[in-house]
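Why should sequence recovery work at all? Because a backbone constrains its sequence more than one might expect. Tight turns favour small or flexible residues, buried strands favour hydrophobic ones, and helices have their own preferences. The token representation captures these environments compactly. In the example below, the structure is given first.
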């Protein structure tokens, strides 16, 4: 028969274990890996990477120590495995499926996706197509539901239209970006109407944190979405395209994290590259963004 002291010890340990699980936090990152592929093309110099380049990307990924990675610009699983290893389940955009060849290019494709550490339960959902142009081959957002906590987390990995990073101008790029923002806004409203928590992470190709930004207004209209990167400083330095022997530092963020109001977000920051590595290796023109949700 257990003594009262032993029973109290067992109960204390049980409560400690439950409390630990309840407060368990997952670490996240989002990273545009710039033309990451196993079959490089002469048309895209950034796609040409040696083993040393992949090894360098892997070292940065290991430093992130992320449970979940939302990624962009990845052409195939073999290339991504060289960066993240074999400890993750990879959900690559369904645009990559054979049944979706009409949405694929013949040389290199830039897919979105999500990588989730083994042991974390997740469900793959249909991609959110962000462009209503029937002929568009781009802008499929990867959608997964992570069931690590008591309440499932709905996660989108996005890569939006480029060349409309500031004020709205009535051109093709901004019109496309506006449609994509409205598609995300509709998705957010669906989540909120269903009482679901969500996070949207990736390359928005736009400075959402600018005061009164038109795109943030479109994306968040009628919702309680919060911009977790609203005060995150832009620290990323990359190798300059025009002057390859120099670095370029971005003035504002275009990689962002949007979450539902129920979520608390902490430690939202860019992981910056070592300057020497920028000249020794083909890394990416985006720095990874890391954050923790609880």
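From this structural description, the recovered sequence reads:
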């Amino acid at each position: 028969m257990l003594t009262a002291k032993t029973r109290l010890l067992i109960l204390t340990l049980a409560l400690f274990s439950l409390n630990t699980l309840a407060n368990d936090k997952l670490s996240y990152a989002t990273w545009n890996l710039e033309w990451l592929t196993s079959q490089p093309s002469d048309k895209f110099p950034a796609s040409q990477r040696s083993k040393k380049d992949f090894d360098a990307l892997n070292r940065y990924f290991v430093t992130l120590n992320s449970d979940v990675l939302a990624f962009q610009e990845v052409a195939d699983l073999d290339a991504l495995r060289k960066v993240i290893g074999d400890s993750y389940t990879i959900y690559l955009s369904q645009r990559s499926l054979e049944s979706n060849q009409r949405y694929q290019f013949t040389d290199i494709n830039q897919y979105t996706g999500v990588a989730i550490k083994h042991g974390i339960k997740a469900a793959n959902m249909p991609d959110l197509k962000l462009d209503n142009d029937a002929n568009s081959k781009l802008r499929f957002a990867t959608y997964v539901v992570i069931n690590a906590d008591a309440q499932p987390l709905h996660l989108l990995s996005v890569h939006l239209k480029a060349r409309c990073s500031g004020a709205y101008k009535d051109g093709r790029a901004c019109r496309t970006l506006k449609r994509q923002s409205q598609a995300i806004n509709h998705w957010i409203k669906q989540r909120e109407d269903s009482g679901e928590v969500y996070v949207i992470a990736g390359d928005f190709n736009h400075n959402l944190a600018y005061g009164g930004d038109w795109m943030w207004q479109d994306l968040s209209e009628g919702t309680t979405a919060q911009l977790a990167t609203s005060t995150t400083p832009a620290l990323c330095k990359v190798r300059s395209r025009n002057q390859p022997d120099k670095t370029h530092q971005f003035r504002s963020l275009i990689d962002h994290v949007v979450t539902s109001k129920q979520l608390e977000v902490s430690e939202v920051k860019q992981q910056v590259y070592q300057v020497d590595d920028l000249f020794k290796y083909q890394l990416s023109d985006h720095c990874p963004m890391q954050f923790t949700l609880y």
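A few observations help interpret the result. The chain is about 25% helix and 30% strand.
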